[in-house]
């Protein structure tokens, strides 16, 4: 919300400077974003009258003008503006004047003709950012010879306030004046608004079919307006200082009243209305060309203003092009309505719009303001464009208007919240200055909330109001005291930071993706997943909560591949959501994805692409950090997002803890990915579990190693062989390492050779060959009986 300081001071003028006023507004909770002068610095410019205009003898596009600048003697000026004419009042820079940009006016000769001064355009005076095509024309009442800057009140500032959504009552000069008056204990005096008597009895029918969304609608027919009339300069200036561009007098008046009182208005061309004005929901298939030229297809949930032939405007957002005021307009139908915030909320964004009207209606407009605004706009219209006003027609559904609210404020609760006791008289005065009707009681105050304060509904709201008007800086500062014991450190847990650093050390970059994903993407990867659907999503592509980290990582992969990043290493930690809202599980997970070359490009790097076992090695580096690598198992299993022959379920102490595998070819084709990708995710609670390291003295006795090569079925998991081996190898087995897998010449078809290195070491003596041979025989026999394994030649 931008407003002119001078305009505000016409309503209420505290004895404060500009910056002090801005600081006071900020401290009251209405943050001031900027304070800026309304015009650039210039001097020596006066109001002048063009007495005579003749063509320049040596230049077709120049004119010779005699100008009366109030000095007593007319001066000659060469002017190139196409709209200069005799009889005009104009801003005139005398010789010696300094214009914005430190441009000094001197005597000059243009094409042989003397020029003493310059007739100025709005852009040359810094009143417009764009270059003006002609000079600035002033009203005929402008006093010749008076300082232009003082006459137009350009020693003024615009103050821009960043309002929170709950303070829609301050989206007007009237609302801001109320705040300043309350803060400074000053009366607020605005223009007197009186009912305009009807000079004709013609009305236009109004029918409200949706009283719940539009509880109050007022309309008035104004006949015989002159749209060609000029908007007064004072109104154009106030609109400009409020950030609104002047369009035509009718639209300017509606915008002016909106800035002044906070009530959006709209004017229809009576000639383009047929039958009746109808407030209803849009119908399927209806379309509307808006005032900005955009044609939209209306949704059935959109409230519209229509006539018997179809939609005329989106209620509370924007009018239609066909029914708007034009140069041919002679009669207008003025609309002033109260639309509920829920009726307008989100409608503008649905059609890619954001208008001043929707901004106000979404936050709440005073439901009692519509009549006052209609009367104020009517008076201004009659003054500027003339015409005859008809009766003001009102359709109201009282049962749907916001109910009057009464809120109780307890003195004890107020003292507890503020940390100090305020005098009862001061509290009552603050509430009354805010517009509440207050009844004091033994334990507190009962307050009736005014219609314009949508944000006051509970006791805490009144406490906040008392605190900010009393002054936050006047409240006591108390630091909380607490006796906090040290929280025990779970030494057995692996900190999340260590896991992250390990992934970074292995060449991964951390990704942070949304917790909500596209339903199509999640269905492609996890067709059986159940997770909450958002009621009001950011966009249709982010409308369901993720049931896995896979969708976000895959979307990040697509983003990188589309930007020519062929080697991608990403990991992410975050929550996944499984189940419906009434039985929702939020599970912290760590996931990773790899794609492209195994090694970064370089003279010593190979061209091999990353595969399942590369990612498995990265995952195992995390599993061993907790010191319980033997608590983890990989078992072949099928996952809908993973290749059926290259996927495994991850088990921790026998319970499912995650998945690892290559992206399924069908899923990859559906998503349009042309390269393979490997990915995993694992539960963080399992990954961070571990055990406290315990020291074991090093044995001083020699190790004994045996290498065993088994022939086993090619589909037998090596893990099964390792489990059997450890069960028979005894308590002194120190290490069991897989160092070779072979299929080919010398190995029967359907079999593979698995070579294992086993190392034993006793802590207190040397092991002999007989003991080791017994253990090896037990391993071989057990493997033969249960796994069909044979020692290879």
* Widest sheet, order of strands: 26-29-30-34-33-32-31
Q: Which stretches of 5+ consecutive residues score pLDDT under 50?
A: none
Please name the fourth-level CATH homologous superfamily of the largest domain.
Phenylalanyl-trna Synthetase, Chain B, domain 3
Broad structural category = alpha+beta
Q: Can you describe what's shown?
A:
The N and C termini lie far apart (89 Å). The protein contains 21 helices and 38 strands. Strand 3 (43-56) and strand 4 (59-68) form a beta hairpin. The protein is α+β, with helices and mostly antiparallel strands and 793 residues long. The mean pLDDT is 91.
Secondary-structure map:
Layout: E1 2-4, H1 5-11, H2 18-27, E2 31-37, E3 43-56, E4 59-68, E5 75-79, E6 89-99, E7 103-104, E8 108-110, E9 113-115, E10 118-119, H3 148-151, E11 157-162, H4 173-184, E12 206-208, E13 216-223, H5 233-241, H6 249-261, E14 265-269, E15 277-281, E16 287-289, E17 295-297, E18 303-307, E19 310-314, E20 318-319, E21 332-338, H7 341-344, H8 347-350, H9 356-363, H10 370-384, E22 388-396, E23 406-410, H11 411-418, H12 424-433, E24 437-440, E25 444-448, H13 459-470, H14 496-505, E26 509-510, E27 516-517, H15 519-525, E28 544-545, H16 550-561, E29 568-578, E30 585-595, H17 612-623, E31 632-636, E32 642-652, E33 655-663, H18 665-671, E34 677-683, H19 684-687, E35 704-713, H20 718-728, E36 733-742, E37 751-760, H21 769-787, E38 790-791
Parallel strand pairs: 12-15, 26-29
Antiparallel strand pairs: 1-11, 2-11, 3-4, 3-6, 4-5, 6-7, 6-10, 8-9, 13-21, 13-22, 14-21, 15-18, 16-17, 18-19, 19-20, 23-25, 24-25, 27-28, 29-30, 30-34, 31-32, 32-33, 33-34, 35-37, 35-38, 36-37
Helix pairs in contact: 1-4, 5-6, 6-10, 20-21
Family: Belongs to the phenylalanyl-tRNA synthetase beta subunit family. Type 1 subfamily.
Domain TRNA-binding: 39-149
Protein name: Phenylalanine--tRNA ligase beta subunit
């Amino acid at each position: 919300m931008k407003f002119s300081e001078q305009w505000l001071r016409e309503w209420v003028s505290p004895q404060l400077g500009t910056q002090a006023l801005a600081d006071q507004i900020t401290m009251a909770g209405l943050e001031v974003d900027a304070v800026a002068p309304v015009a650039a610095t210039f001097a020596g410019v006066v109001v002048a009258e063009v007495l005579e205009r003749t063509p320049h003898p040596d230049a077709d596009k120049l004119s010779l003008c005699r100008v009366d600048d109030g000095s007593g003697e007319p001066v000659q000026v060469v002017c190139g503006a196409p709209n200069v004419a005799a009889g005009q009042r104009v801003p005139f820079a005398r010789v010696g004047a300094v214009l914005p940009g430190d441009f000094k006016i001197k005597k000059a000769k243009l094409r042989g003709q003397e020029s003493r001064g310059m007739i100025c355009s709005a852009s040359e005076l810094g009143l417009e950012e764009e270059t003006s095509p002609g000079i600035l024309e002033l009203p005929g009442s402008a006093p010749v010879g008076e300082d232009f800057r003082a006459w137009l009140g350009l020693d003024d500032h615009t103050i821009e306030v960043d309002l929170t959504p709950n303070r829609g009552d301050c989206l007007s000069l009237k609302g801001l004046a109320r705040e300043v008056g309350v803060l400074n204990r000053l009366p607020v005096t605005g223009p007197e608004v009186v009912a305009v008597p009807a000079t004709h009895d013609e009305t236009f029918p109004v029918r409200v079919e949706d009283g719940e969304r539009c509880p109050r609608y007022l309309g008035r027919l104004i006949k015989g307006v002159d749209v060609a009339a000029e908007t007064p300069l004072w109104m154009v200036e106030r609109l400009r200082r409020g950030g609104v561009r002047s369009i035509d007098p009718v639209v300017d008046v509606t915008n002016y009243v909106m800035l002044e009182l906070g009530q959006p208005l709209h004017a229809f061309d009576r000639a383009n209305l047929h039958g009746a004005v109808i407030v209803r929901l849009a119908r399927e298939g209806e379309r509307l060309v808006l005032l900005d030229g955009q044609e939209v297809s209306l949704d059935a949930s959109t409230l519209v203003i229509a006539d018997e032939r179809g939609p005329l405007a989106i209620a509370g957002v924007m009018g239609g092009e066909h029914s708007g005021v034009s140069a041919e307009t002679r009669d207008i139908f003025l609309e002033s309505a109260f639309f509920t915030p829920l009726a307008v909320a989100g409608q503008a964004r649905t059609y890619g719009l954001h208008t001043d009207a929707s901004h106000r209606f979404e936050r709440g407009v005073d439901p009692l303001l519509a009549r006052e605004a209609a009367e104020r706009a009517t008076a201004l219209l009659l003054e500027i464009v003339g015409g005859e006003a008809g009766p003001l027609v009102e359709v109201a559904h009282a049962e749907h208007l916001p109910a009057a609210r009464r809120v109780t404020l307890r003195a004890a609760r107020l003292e507890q919240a503020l940390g100090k006791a305020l005098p009862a008289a001061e509290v009552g005065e603050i509430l009354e200055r805010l517009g509440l009707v207050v009844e004091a009681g033994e334990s507190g105050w009962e307050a009736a909330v005014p219609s314009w304060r949508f944000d006051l509904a509970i006791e805490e709201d009144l406490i906040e109001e008392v605190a900010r008007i009393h002054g936050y800086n006047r409240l006591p500062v108390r630091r909380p005291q607490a006796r906090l014991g040290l929280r025990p450190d779970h030494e057995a847990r692996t900190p999340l930071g260590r896991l992250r650093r390990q992934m970074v050390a292995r060449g991964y970059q951390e990704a942070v993706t949304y917790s909500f994903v596209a339903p199509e993407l999640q269905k492609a990867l996890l067709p059986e997943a159940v997770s909450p659907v958002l009621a009001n999503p950011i966009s249709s592509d982010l409308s369901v909560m993720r049931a896995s980290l896979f969708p976000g990582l895959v979307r990040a992969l697509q983003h990188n591949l589309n930007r020519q990043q062929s080697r991608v290493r990403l990991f992410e930690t975050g929550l996944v959501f499984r189940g419906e809202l009434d039985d929702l599980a939020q599970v912290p997970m760590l996931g990773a994805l790899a794609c492209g070359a195994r090694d970064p490009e370089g003279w010593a790097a190979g061209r091999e692409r990353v595969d399942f076992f590369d990612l498995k090695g990265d995952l195992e580096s995390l599993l061993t950090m907790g010191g319980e690598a033997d608590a983890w198992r990989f078992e072949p299993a099928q996952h809908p997002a993973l290749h059926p022959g290259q996927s495994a379920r991850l088990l921790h102490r026998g319970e499912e803890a995650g998945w690892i595998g290559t992206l399924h070819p069908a899923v990859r084709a559906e998503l349009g990915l042309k390269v393979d990708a490997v990915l995993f995710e694992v539960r963080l609670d399992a990954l961070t579990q571990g055990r406290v390291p315990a020291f074991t003295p090093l044995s001083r006795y020699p190790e004994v190693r045996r290498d065993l090569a088994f022939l086993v079925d090619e589909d037998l998991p090596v893990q099964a062989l390792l489990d059997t081996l450890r069960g028979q190898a005894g308590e002194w087995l120190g290490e069991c390492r897989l160092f070779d897998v072979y299929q080919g010449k010398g190995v029967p078809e359907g079999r593979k050779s698995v070579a294992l290195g086993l190392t034993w070491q006793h802590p207190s003596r040397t092991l002999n060959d007989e003991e080791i041979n017994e253990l090896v025989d037990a391993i071989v026999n057990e493997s033969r009986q249960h796994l069909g394994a044979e020692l290879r030649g």
